[in-house]
Amino acid sequence: MYMKKITGAVVAATLMSTAAHATTEIEWWHAMGGTLGEKVNEIAADFNASQSDYEIKPVYKGTYAETMTSAIAAFRAKQQPAIVQVFEVGTATMMGAKKAIYPVHQLMADTKENFNPNRYLSAVTGYYTSNEGKMLSMPFNSSTPVLYYNKDMFANAGIKSAPKTWKEMGEVSQKLLDAGAHCGFTTTWQSWTQIENFGARNNIAMADNNNGFGGLNTHFTFNKPAFVNHIRTMSDWSKSGIYKYGGRQSTGMPLFYTQQCAITMGSSAGLAGIKANMKDINVGVAQLPYDDSLVKKPQNTIIGGASLWVLRGHSSAQYKGVAKFFSYLSSAAVQADWHQFTGYLPITQDAYQLTKKQGFYQQNPGTDVAVKQMTSVTPTVSSKGIRFGNFLQTRDIINEQLEGVWAGKISAQDALDNAVKQGNEELRRFQRTQK
Amino acid sequence: MSSHVGFKNKWLPIALISPQLLITLVFFIWPAGQAIIQSTQLEDAFGLSTEFVGLENFISLFNDSNYLSSFFTTLQFSLTVAILALVSALMLSAFAEHITRGSTFYRTFLIWPYAVAPVVAGALWLFLFDPTIGVIGELLALVGVDWNPVLNGNHAMWMVVITSTWKQISYNFLFFLAALQSVPKALHEAAAIDGSGPIKRFLTISFPLISPTSFFLLVVNFVYAFFDTFAVIHAMTQGGPSNSTSTLVYKVYNDGFIGLNLGSSAAQSVILMALVALLTVVQFKYVEKKVAY
């Protein structure tokens, strides 16, 4: 009886003593699943272990769309996290919610944290800065679309190198089909790879007003002949078996993993998944093809991926922790490790130089394709990025119309006309809600 | 003897039904009221700016060809699911009623699918139907069908119909079985003596006598197909390809939570509410007359 009381008292004292040391908890909502999610947890754990004032709690919320809508719903219920990872197409919506977001440049200034925006790659920050050049969100995982190809299947068909232009894509795919492949190529995130980046790579704007950077009175122009011809060609290829549609977002990847298709186009961060799913198969990485009837030298591609936004409504102690965490995330060591593990671009010059110095690119051929594709040319007004309100919905509209084209139900011109018309309605609706 | 129950105390009946009234108020009237208010507004995703626009959301919906085609899609989907689920369950319960050996085994396994959560059922059947790695997908390819639910709207529709039906058959089966067992055996024996075969006996005796259950299940199945199939569609096709499986309830979710167009989404749910109320009134007024109690 006496022992029970002693045990009880000891347990109570232990429990109370751990509760007494309070670290400031900061919630971070993200959309990194699978191996990427494990890496995120590792980064957070390392930061938490490196100091004892703040604790970052990463919470996986599902897809990019689900994470963004959860954060918005949470904001409306006053339960928002301090940090949320929002994909690049949500930028305009986040930027417009001036009362909800805490711009990163202001956060760093208010918390007196050391912050130099010039350390970051300009192709990346350009997307996330305001028209006055102030950084609004913290770049974290920026990808860019690249071409992945099955070297074994290429060797089998006697093809020496990856196709550089869309004309070569057709020829190479036909050779692959003749050698027994089920399809030549597939793609993922079709709006991002076949419309947005088709425009950027070939230096054609997809909307007026500098692709939306100039203001809210933007109109889409991706139903111009250059885009229509490209979609029409892909539609013909869909009928002949050169191109096979695999689904929205990245559901088309199994077609590449199972070697049904020899080529796919997707995020540079897809490399981790490819390595895991195609262990004994030789996969190569190449730059995204361009249309040599439109440009002699291709432009850079637009970044994808996401950035970290800070939401208002938290204590200043938490914001100090957020600022410290952001500095930690941008350190060369952390960024270099994240870049090497995932295939996302190194967002700072320091991280890129460190990776080069470590000999990573020599030991892993193909991993610098994305970086080179982004940095080898100066971005033009048509290739530095896009900024459209409600673009998540417009991407779905584009998906719906393109699916109609691949199924042979609608012509390329009609599909793009419909998408432009409905997309413009989304832009006008966004314009009206921005007061 | 009076069949009308009266309460002597004036406040007792109110006190007794007030918990239920409170629940209806909080979980139905209040959200419905908010939906009606939101349907007349145009606001940004974060709720930081709202503008009263009257009936504009409703008018733009009726001018939207995507919305009008989702009506047709929903009708197509609901009718197929309801008919398939009812007919299959009726046949299965008619057979199960006659089986004596292993009847518990059959009945248990026929009831199991109902316990599976809709999302799990969706993920399960999606895997089976996958054109690249699914078992059923491969079988279909062997038979010569170019199975591609990612591109072919009809294939996608069949996929969600089969999954939704599979889940609902168990529920219908339970009710039909109980109803069939409540038909007096004496009627069947009398008819059998007169020379009536099993199918004729079923059609002329059992079927009319289980009509209250059939009617009830018809209503339940329709409501199920209208609303509870959201999870299946979300897990399997997300309304695609090209909106071919975008039912009314899925569009409410898609426009509201993905497109962040809350005014339009609220307008759609108001319309859906009115539609279901209308359907229920019609069903009770006209179909109930044919039901023999």
| CATH homology-level superfamily of chain B | MetI-like
Q: What about the largest sheet of chain B?
A: 2 strands, antiparallel
- CATH class value of chain B: Mainly Alpha
Q: What fraction strand of chain A?
A: 5-15%
* Number of E-type strands of chain A: 9
Oligomerization: heterodimer
Q: Taking all residues together, what is the mean pLDDT of chain B?
A: 88
For the record, the CATH architecture of chain B stands as: Orthogonal Bundle
Within CATH, the superfamily of the largest domain in chain A carries the name: Periplasmic binding protein-like II
Question: Radius of gyration of chain A in whole Å, from Cα?
Answer: 24 Å
Encode the helix/strand succession of chain B as letters.
HEEHHHHHHHHHHHH
- Helix content, binned percent of chain A: 40-55%
Q: Within the largest sheet of chain A, what's the order of strands? A: 2-1-3-9-4
**Helical percentage of chain B:** over 70%
CATH level-1 class of the largest domain in chain A: Alpha Beta
Number of domains of chain A: 2
Main interface by residue count: A-B, 40 and 27 residues
End-to-end separation of chain B: 24 Å
String of helices and strands of chain A: HEHEHEHHHEEHHEHHHHEHEEHHHHHHH
Describe this structure in words.
The complex is a heterodimer of chains A (435) and B (293). Chain A is α/β, with parallel strands linked by helices. Chain A folds into 2 domains: 15-143 and 304-363, D-Maltodextrin-Binding Protein, domain 2 (3-Layer(aba) Sandwich); 145-301 and 388-433, Periplasmic binding protein-like II (D-Maltodextrin-Binding Protein, domain 2, 3-Layer(aba) Sandwich). Chain A has helices spanning 2-20, 34-50, 64-76, 91-96, 104-110, 122-128, 151-156, 166-178, 190-201, 208-211, 225-240, 253-257, 271-277, 316-329, 332-342, 349-357, 360-363, 369-375, 391-406, 412-433; strands at 24-30, 54-60, 83-87, 138-141, 145-150, 183-187, 261-267, 283-286, 306-310. In chain A, helix 2 (34-50) links the parallel strand 1 and strand 2. The model of chain A has no long low-confidence stretch (mean pLDDT 90). Chain B has 293 residues and is mostly helical. Chain B has one domain (66-290): Orthogonal Bundle (MetI-like fold), CATH 1.10.3720. Chain B contains 13 helices and 2 strands, in the order H-E-E-H-H-H-H-H-H-H-H-H-H-H-H. Chain B has helices at 11-39, 56-62, 65-98, 103-111, 118-129, 135-143, 153-181, 185-193, 198-209, 211-228, 230-236, 248-258, 262-287, and strands spanning 41-43, 50-52. Chains A and B meet through helix 3, helix 19 and helix 20 of A and helix 12 of B.
